[in-house]
Amino acid sequence: MDRSSEVIEQIREINLSYIMLAQRILREDRAVGMFRLGLSSQVADILAGLSLAQIVKLASSEQLLCSFRFNDHALLSALTHTSKHAEVTATHAAILLAGQPATQSG
């Protein structure tokens, strides 16, 4: 298996794991799941309702389905810098994440 094929296979594995985790989180507590995943209500509905066949089909994409939410300098700094007040850092990061728009269905 060449390097490119190996990366594509790893992306597919991540996609499958991500979708299955997202479904589990949404089914356990929809509101918390939407917040943690950064999803709109419409996208949460779609993800939660996917059949196994749909999950496998979606996961087989060569594109990574999840995104790195910490693309803001302030947020990354809050999470990566050591602090004497770790609980404040976690709260600050949660506040910054809450301010990010949810993913929209399209």
TrEMBL record:
The keyword Cytoplasm applies. The keyword Transcription applies. It is found in: Cytoplasm. SUPFAM superfamilies: Flagellar transcriptional activator FlhD. InterPro entries: Flagellar_FlhD (IPR023559), FlhD_sf (IPR036194). One of its GO terms (biological process) is regulation of bacterial-type flagellum assembly. GO terms for cellular component: cytoplasm. Signal peptide: none annotated. Keywords: Activator, Bacterial flagellum biogenesis, Cell projection, Cilium, Cytoplasm, Disulfide bond, DNA-binding, Flagellum, Transcription, Transcription regulation. GO terms for molecular function: DNA binding. Belongs to the FlhD family. The C-terminal region contains a putative helix-turn-helix (HTH) motif, suggesting that this region may bind DNA. Functions in complex with FlhC as a master transcriptional regulator that regulates transcription of several flagellar and non-flagellar operons by binding to their promoter region. Activates expression of class 2 flagellar genes, including fliA, which is a flagellum-specific sigma factor that turns on the class 3 genes. Also regulates genes whose products function in a variety of physiological pathways. Homodimer; disulfide-linked. Forms a heterohexamer composed of two FlhC and four FlhD subunits. Each FlhC binds a FlhD dimer, forming a heterotrimer, and a hexamer assembles by dimerization of two heterotrimers. NCBIfam families: PRK02909.1-1 (NF002783). This is Flagellar transcriptional regulator FlhD. It comes from Paraburkholderia largidicola. The gene is flhD_1.
